[in-house]
Automatic annotation (TrEMBL):
Keywords: Carbohydrate metabolism, Cellulose degradation, Disulfide bond, Glycosidase, Hydrolase, Polysaccharide degradation, Signal
Endpoints of the signal sequence: 1-25
Organism lineage string: Bacteria, Bacillati, Actinomycetota, Actinomycetes, Kitasatosporales
Keyword Cytoplasm: no
SUPFAM superfamilies found in the cross-reference section: Glycosyl hydrolases family 6, cellulases
Organism of origin: Streptomyces niveus (Streptomyces spheroides)
Protein name as it appears in the record: Glucanase
Length: 324
């Protein structure tokens, strides 16, 4: 972290002694992962990059390489990641060595996608999840990062009992506490779904119940297609409800990976979509980010019929570059 010292505000009451291996946020130090780095990290091992490497003679490869694989995007972590401490530590370490800011998605909460069903799974119990997310945060340690915690988890309520909702909220609050304690230069975001899923007032209540006051912000439009204007309106409406009911607001980021042509009303591998912009400023949002990888399937549906969620589909990626 060659640039760390330029953004830290030194506290007069900094702790002088900490247990070995512990990273503790200093009450007088304001995290600024943007200022600590020189732009977003581009993952050389993303699924589109791996496809391009394996298919150099494919006529679609140059366009996918130049317009998707070479662009910064988030990496998702879940049970498929193996030892989570090793996986996260390796990824964040590579970004740190390049003086770039990594964007990570934690996606392993028990009962994941319980109501939608396309991306089911997650840790086997709240205790297992706590162990997993604690290792995730500890692996980042003091290095700069952005982490979105459990996409869809606050919109996926329709099939859950109140007891299950309370249990999920407790896990999300604890996750935020883990990052606060062990990854002090990480900005965390809870996910607020998308503008067509849950109304802003209800989502504000869900966010607050999950501990949004302790998060840096919230995210909108993950794996969806709604344009920036609609997401900015949604984010602002959530903040109005948070302010009115709970006395605070939060910055928000938008997933622009597939919203360049806006939504046609379909959410699962619709045709005719296009990639959007990535920016450290968002014109009303805090940032515009590729949180979903363009070309990765939403599941066995739409133009991705026969695929599984997360599978990279080169023809879908190619068409998404040009919007057809």
């Amino acid at each position: 972290m060659r640039k760390i010292m330029r953004t830290l505000v030194t506290s007069a009451f900094a702790c002088l002694l900490l247990p070995l291996g512990t990273v503790q946020a200093d009450a007088g130090v304001l995290a600024d992962p943007i200022g600590m780095t020189s732009g977003f990290y581009t993952d050389p091992n993303s699924t589109p990059a791996a496809w391009v490497s394996a298919n150099p003679s494919d006529g679609r490869a140059p366009a996918i390489r130049d317009n998707i694989a070479s662009r910064p995007m988030a990496r998702w972590f879940g049970s498929w990641s193996g030892d989570i401490g090793t996986a996260v530590g390796s990824y964040v370490g590579a970004a740190d060595a390049a003086d770039k800011l990594p964007v990570l998605i934690a996606y392993n909460i028990p009962g994941r996608d319980a109501c939608g069903g396309h991306s089911g799974g997650g840790a086997g119990s709240p205790a297992a999840y706590r162990t997993w997310i604690s290792a995730f945060a500890s692996a980042i340690a003091g290095r700069p990062a952005l982490v979105v915690i459990e996409p869809d988890s606050l919109g996926d309520y329709s099939c859950l009992s109140q007891q299950q909702i309370d249990e999920r909220n407790a896990m999300l609050r604890d996750a935020l506490a883990q990052f606060s304690a062990y990854a002090p230069n990480t900005w965390t975001y809870l996910d607020a779904g998308n503008p067509a899923w849950i109304d802003a007032g209800t989502m504000a209540r869900h966010l607050d119940g999950a501990g949004a006051r302790q998060a840096h912000g919230f995210s909108s439009n993950i794996s969806n297609y709604y344009g920036n204007d609609r997401n900015i309106g949604y984010g602002n409406a959530i903040n109005s409800a948070l302010s009115a009911s709970y006395g605070y607001t939060k910055p928000f980021v938008i997933d622009t990976s597939r919203n360049g042509n806006d939504s046609n009303g379909e959410w699962c591998n619709p045709a005719g979509r296009r990639t959007g912009a990535v920016s450290q400023t968002g014109g009303g949002a805090e940032m515009l980010l590729w949180l979903k990888t363009p070309g990765e399937s939403d599941g066995d549906c739409g133009v991705g019929a026969g695929s599984v969620a997360g599978q990279f589909l080169p023809e879908v990626a190619y068409k998404m570059i040009y919007g057809y």
